[in-house]
Amino acid sequence: MLNTQPHPQPEPVPFVQPKTEQINSGLDHRHLLGLSDYSSREIELILETARQFRDVLNRPIKRVPTLRGVTVVNLFFEASTRTRISFELAEKRLSADTVNFSASGSSVSKGESLKDTAQNIEAMKIDMVVLRHQSPGASHFLTQCVDSIVINAGDGAHEHPTQALLDMLTLSDHFDVFKGLNVSIIGDITHSRVARSNIHGLLTLGANVTICGPRPLIPIELDRISSKGSLRVTHSLESALEGCDVAMALRIQMERQGQNLFPSVREYHTQFGIQMDHLNRYKDLIVMHPGPVNRGVELASEVVDHERAVILNQVTNGVAVRMAVLYLLSGQNSTE
Q1: By the 8 A CB rule, do 103 and 48 touch?
Q2: Domains of the chain, earliest start first
Q3: How far apart are CA 236 and CA 211, in angstroms?
Q4: For residues 164 and 201, what is the distance between their CA atoms, to the nearest angstrom?
Q5: Are 294 and 273 in contact (CB under 8 A)?
Q6: pLDDT value at position 18?
Q7: How many H helices and E strands in the chain?
Q8: Of the N and C termini of the chain, which has fewer Cβ atoms inside 10 Å?
Q9: CA neighbor of 251 nearest in space, from 171, 163, 321
Q10: Which residue in 68, 77, 100 sits closest to 87, CA to CA?
Q11: Do the beta carbons of residue 217 and residue 262 sit within 8 Å?
Q12: pLDDT profile of the chain (336 residues), mean per 10
C-alpha cells in the first residue's frame, strides 16, 4: 500500500492498493533504460500504479510524502521542455528533493565527460538519476559509472520509455484491452526513440502495430527492433489507417536527419499528414502525438484541436506515469 496522505493533510487520505499479485511483486529491473526487456506484467504494473497516482493529482492537495528524503537529479544533456518539466513535477508531487542539471553553461561545455559529471554529482549523495542524452545507449553506459538508479528520459534515437508508457496509459483510457488493438505509428521512424519504445511496449501487451512513412524514414532493420507480436510496414497512409484504432503521428526530426530525406514538408503533409478528411472517414479513430506538434505537417491544425486528438491527455498522463516509475524503482514500499 502506498503512503499517499496529502502533505500537509487535514485528515489521513489512504491510498488503496489494488488487490493483485502484480502490484505486490514489484519490478524485476533496477533501472528503466528501455521497454525492450520489460515484461507485460511490469508494464501493466506501472500503468496500474500510474492510474492511482493520477487520482492523487486530482486532489486539492496534490503532494504526497512518498519519496521524502530521496534525492533525484535531472541530468539533461539535450534540450527538453515537456519531459523535463513532467519529471520535475512528478518528483515534487512525491516530495523528493530535486536537482536540475543542464549541459548548457555547465562543466560539460568545458570538456567534462558524462562519466565524470555523473560521478561528481553522485558524490553529493543522490539516489536517482533521470538522464536525457543525445547519444544512443548513454543511459546503459551511466549504469556502469554510478550506483544510483537510472531512468532513461530519451537517448538519441534509441528509446524513450516513459513517453511510451504515458502513451499506453492514454490508450487504456479508451480501450479495455491491448490485445488485438490496431495501432499505426506514422512518420519519422528511423530517428524516433518514441517509436521504438512504443513498438516494444505495444507488442509486448499484444497490440498489432503498423509502421508507416516515406521509405527513407523507415529503418531497414525494422525486423530487429522487435521480434514480438504483429508488426507490419506500409508506405501508404490509407493502408495504415484502414481498420486502425489509433494513429500515432510522429514529429519530423529535421535536426537528426542531417539531410532532406523527402522532397518537401508540403509534400509530406499531402502524403502522410492526418487531415480532417481522415477523421470524417474513420469515425472511431483516436489520434495521438508525443509533441511538439508541427501543425500542418504531421497533423492538420483542425485535427490537433479535435476532440478525438488526445494530445493534452498524453501530457497529463505523463506526470502520473513518471510518478509511478519513480515510486516503483525507488523501492519505497512502506505502508506507514
Answers
A1: no
A2: 40-158+316-330 (3.40.50.1370), 161-312 (3.40.50.1370)
A3: 10
A4: 7
A5: no
A6: 37
A7: 14, 9
A8: C
A9: 163
A10: 100
A11: yes
A12: 50 38 66 96 98 94 94 91 95 96 60 82 93 94 94 95 98 96 95 94 96 90 68 95 97 60 78 96 96 92 97 96 97 49
Question: 156 and 181 in contact (C-beta within 8 Å)?
Answer: no
Closest CA to 161 of 152, 170, 169: 152
Residues in the chain: 336
CB 84 within 8 A of CB 76: yes
- The pLDDT of residue 80: 85
Set of cell numbers at residue 210: 503498423
- Give the C-alpha separation, 115 to 335, whole Å: 36
Rounded distance, CA 225 to CA 75, Å?
27
H/E element, 238: helix 237-241
Which residues are registered as beta bridge partners of 182?
Answer: 208
Q: Which pLDDT does position 264 carry in this prediction? A: 78
CA distance 176 to 174: 7
CB 176 within 8 A of CB 207: no
